[in-house]
Amino acid sequence: LEACLLFGAVFFYGMLRSGLSIHLRDPDMFLAQLLYCIFAACIAYLTVDIRLRGVVLAVLPVVLLPGQFTLTPRALRLVSHVSVSALALAVTLDWLIHPQQMDVVADMAQWAFACVIIVASSWVAQRVSELRLKLTSERESLSSVLDEVQVIAAHDPLTGLINRRRMQELLHNEWIRKDRLRQTTTLVMLDLDHFKRINDEYGHHAGDEVL
In 153-173, which positions are buried (b, 16+ CB within 10 angstroms) versus exposed (e)? Predict the structure, then answer.
């Protein structure tokens, strides 16, 4: 058990601190760490004193709770299924390794109780994860709409050029930058002479095309 815990701590710390995990699909290795915690809990179930197994079983549901803020509901279901299966495997291996300590009724009762807690914790974590993903999607949609509104508010709808208000903001910022850096600046103006003739002779639609 000590070797298992030490290896996990060194491995994940080394992967994260060295930057090697950046190239993975999950750079934080969150799912991998949860699965390793389940594996370590099963090792603990096989190695600790039989009177402490209740504590080990209580750890498994806790493993699921941090995942609600990072993992998807599908990943949480996977972790839940792995937890139940791994615990069943640990109980079976314990019967094979320590047949003299085998108490089928007590062990099955503990396993069933742990499974109920794991499933319940997984259900809560999935609901929280779904709500988190929904809020994230709504926030991104709102941010996209706000970006569009800002573009519309700062640009002319016909030409796509910045409008007068945005131009005044840019000129003000440029003037401040000029004073701060003690540099000169240049303002270039372009005027279209006799543009009114186009609107008068060909109509405003043609004038818009020209612009």
Answer: eeeeeeeeeeeeebeeeeeee
Q: Judge contact between 210 and 197, C-beta under 8 A.
A: no
CB within 8 Å of 170: residues ≥ 6 apart? 162
Please say if the pLDDT value at position 50 is more than 80: no
The residue among 106, 111, 109, 122 whose CA lies nearest residue 89 is: 111
Kindly provide the b/e burial profile for residues 89-116, where b requires at least 16 CB atoms within 10 angstroms of the residue's own CB.
Answer: ebbeebeeeeeeeeeeeebeebbeebbe
In this structure, the number of other CB atoms found within 10 A of the CB of residue 200 comes to 10
Q: pLDDT (tens digit, 9 = 90+) per residue, 12-27?
A: 999 989 988 888 888 8
Please give the average per-residue pLDDT across 76-94, as a whole number: 86
User: CA-to-CA distance for 80 and 134, rounded, in angstroms?
Assistant: 22
Whole-number pLDDT of residue 14: 92
